[in-house]
Amino acid sequence: MAKDYTALTRDISAYIGELRRAQPEPMQAFSALAKGASAEGAVDKKTKELIALAIGVTQRCDGCIGFHAKALKDLGASRDEIAEVMAMCVYMGGGPALMYAADALRPFDQFAEAA
C-alpha cells in the first residue's frame, strides 16, 4: 500500500503540536536536542539529514522517513544521493531495510512534486 507522506507528516505534525501543549517541558527538551544534534558543525546539515533518513529506514519509522526526506528536499539533496544512502541501508539492514529503503524514495518524490 502506497503511503502519502505529505499527509502523514501533516497529520503527525498536528499531533506533535498537541503533545507539545500537553507536555511542554519534555517536548522543549526534545526540540533542543534535535536542534543541537542537527546544527552545522564538522558534519554538514545535509549529511546529518541523510544519516537521519537512514536511521529512520532501519528503525522502520514512517514519520521519521517523511520528515527527513522533506528536510533533504529543502536542503537541496538529489534523488541520487538518497538512493545511494538507501543502498547502504539495504547493505547494513538486509531485506527489511530494503522494503523501507525502496519506500523512502516516495516521500522525497511527493515533496518534490508539491514544491
- Determine the CATH superfamily: AhpD-like
* Order of H and E elements: HHHHH
Alpha-carbon Rg, integer: 14 Å
- In which range does the helix fraction lie? over 70%
Percent of residues in β-strands: under 5%
The CATH topology annotation reads as AhpD-like
Task: Please give the oligomerization state of what you see.
Answer: single chain
Low confidence ranges: none
Q: Structural class, from helix and strand content? A: mainly alpha
Average pLDDT over all residues: 94
Extended strand count: 0
Overall morphology:
globular
CATH architecture: Up-down Bundle
CATH class categorisation: Mainly Alpha
How many helices? The count is 5
Brief write-up:
By secondary structure, the protein is mainly α. Helix content is 83%, strand content 0%. The protein has one domain (5-114): Up-down Bundle (AhpD-like), CATH 1.20.1290.
